[in-house]
Fold this sequence. Notes:
By secondary structure, the protein is mostly helical. The protein folds into two domains: 1-79, no CATH class; 95-132, no CATH class. Helices cover 55% and strands 9% of the residues. The chain contains six helices and four strands, in the order ααβααβααββ. It has helices spanning 6-14, 18-31, 42-54, 60-71, 81-92, 98-109, and strands at residues 38-40, 76-78, 115-117, 128-130. The strands form two sheets. Strands 1-2 form a two-stranded parallel ribbon. The radius of gyration is 16 Å and the shape is globular.
Amino acid sequence: MKGLDTNVLVRFLAQDEPAQSALAANFIETHCTDETPCFIGHIVLCELAWVLESNYHQTRDEIAYAIEELLHVGQLAVLDPEVVRAALNDYKRSNVDFPDHLLARVNVSKGCETTVTFDRKASKYAAFTLLE
């Protein structure tokens, strides 16, 4: 199994830099298979959400759609896909960033009762507790 870095995934999805986009597409199409999928970790998903929002000015719906689509590709293995799905559902129903929701869902999956934060916006959601 091979892992994908955010920059390879971005070039594959955005297809906006001809040389790197071609290399990324060729690699993913030839090395990521149903039998040996390429791995996508949580950090990559967090960075992907940030890059799509800040560099490509995509909306929350577009970002959620892109990440959801990655979960459906058999040639890709996303770490803890059910945790990612739950974080996406939270993200779609809030104004909190995807990485925050993913962090909270990972914590819950590891037995945490809450995620303590200074982030007032995040603390309005059940998975978080504001530290005051």
